[in-house]
Write a structure and sequence with these properties.
Length: 465
């Protein structure tokens, strides 16, 4: 990272903190899609945000200037940083009363960065990236195609991180324009950012996925290999969109903010005790990270009660050509998450057939859904008891006993036995690694096996033998 850049300062502040910032690598086409999606929500919302951007060079701003004229109508104030180019200050958008330009010196490290910082009382988001240096590109050198340019950074909806980055950006503006910096500081201090509502978050995530996929459809690349590389980068970022959605769901629950990470650890360990294949554990892991996303909890089912998922073509453990549950609109456009949507939707089924949404019973309920339901319930019960004076071992015992009361009614009896083994390990000092929903790359969650069309009946909805 370039010394003195906003990205470098943010990384330095969080390097040894309890919540270090995790960065990823993004292609330019991915960043364009992300920025357009986050900007479009400004046009749909009445939050009137403070927007701070960095475009590297004025010519990149000029490509977006007409768009920013529309964004200015829905924003209180917009600040644009870029190295000055011909026409940078003369474009009509730059003359709007709520738009300010900061012409960066050519040697300024921020002139190598690409930022979009949106700060309002009910919508905060940002993309903050820095282009790779020639040395970072390695032996392949700087790419000839503009679409293949790479940037190092992150994007997030987390209010505290967005506000902190806005403060760094304002501090960087101060030497160029102290009066503007004072004005921005007062504006920032007047804003009390909050978490995005589930409805707005779902809408923004849908925009992100739509832009990523639409942008990819319009690409024209010279080789299949380059196409494949960009495809995987886009898929990774689509998954990140949902992970960030899950992260905010957890942050909004001050009483149980580690639910996703702890349910992942429990569900994954149970899957390992059952000797599930790696592809199925990966899918279970992603479902556990996303298990509290509200739109999926309320989804209707495509599964038919009384029809065993052991041989059902559209069960989560079968090929992903299945139709998506109708209520899970936010995942509809991403085939790799259709099975995950099914797993999450059917976590509310009961072993005795009295649950929702499809009234499935026994082995008709997808195996991953049964694991997720039990792991989530056990985690919730343990979390409820953490403030009590009893010992760690007794907390686990009581939570397990409460789950056992629902054995063969709500929960799969065999899975309760697996949980019992896991609890014995926890009581003897076993520590489960926690995987937070905040990750910089999603590719570790998917692999080619997800696209496989060959599954045996033993792999679908049943225990491995």
């Amino acid at each position: 990272m370039l010394e003195g850049s906003i990205l470098q300062q943010l990384e330095s502040i969080h390097r040894h903190s309890a919540r270090p910032v995790r960065f990823g690598v993004y292609y330019k086409n991915t960043l364009v899609a992300l920025c357009h999606a986050l900007e479009d929500h400004i046009l749909k919302d009445d939050s009137k945000p403070l927007v701070i951007t960095a475009f590297q060079q004025g010519k990149w701003y000029l490509q977006e200037a007409e768009r920013y004229a529309d964004i200015a109508q829905h924003s209180d104030e917009i600040v644009i940083m870029a190295a000055a180019d011909a026409g940078f200050a003369e474009h009509p958008t730059s003359l709007l009363p709520n738009v300010d330009l900061v012409a960066l010196d050519p040697g300024d490290p921020v002139a190598q960065e690409w930022h979009l910082i949106i700060l309002s009382s009910n919508y905060t988001a940002m993309v903050i990236c820095q282009e790779l240096s020639e040395a970072d590109y390695g032996s392949a050198g700087i790419p000839g195609s503009d679409l293949e340019r790479k940037f190092y950074g992150l994007w997030t909806f987390e209010p505290e991180l967005v506000r902190e980055t806005a403060e760094l950006a304002i501090a960087h503006i101060r030497p160029y324009n102290p009066e503007l910096a004072n004005q921005l500081t007062a504006h920032k201090d007047s804003i009390q950012p909050s978490l995005v509502t589930p409805e707005d978050l779902s809408a923004v995530v849908s925009l992100v996925v739509d832009y990523l996929q639409t942008g990819q459809d319009n690409l024209s690349l010279p080789t299949a290999l380059r196409q494949q590389v960009l495809d995987r980068n886009l898929i990774s970022n689509e998954i990140q969109a949902f992970l960030r959605m899950a992260q905010l769901m957890d942050l909004a629950d001050i009483n149980n903010p580690m639910a996703a990470a702890e349910v992942v650890a429990l569900a994954e360990t149970m899957g390992q005790l059952l000797n599930l294949p790696a592809w199925q554990i990966k899918r279970l892991r992603l479902a556990a990270l996303l298990h509290r996303i509200d739109p999926l909890q309320k989804a209707e089912s495509v599964l038919i009660p009384g029809t065993s998922t052991r041989y059902q073509a559209d069960a989560p453990s079968s090929p992903l050509s299945c139709p998506l549950v109708r209520g899970a609109q936010v995942l509809r456009t991403m085939p790799r998450l259709r099975a995950v949507a099914q797993i999450i939707t059917h976590q509310t089924e009961w072993w005795n057939g009295t649950g929702e949404p499809a009234g499935l019973a026994g082995d008709e309920i997808p195996l991953e859904s049964r694991i997720l339901a039990l792991a989530a319930d056990f985690q919730w019960r343990v979390n409820q008891k953490k403030s009590s004076p009893i010992s760690r071992e007794e907390i686990f015992t009581q939570a397990l006993d409460e789950c056992r009361l629902q054995q063969s009614t709500r929960f799969d009896p065999k899975l309760v036995d697996i949980l019992t083994l896991l609890v014995m390990g926890l009581q003897q000092g076993l520590d489960l690694p926690l995987i937070e929903a905040k990750v910089s790359a999603g590719m570790w969650l998917i692999d080619s096996r997800w696209d496989s069309q060959s599954k045996t009946s033993e792999e679908i909805g049943t225990y491995p033998q």
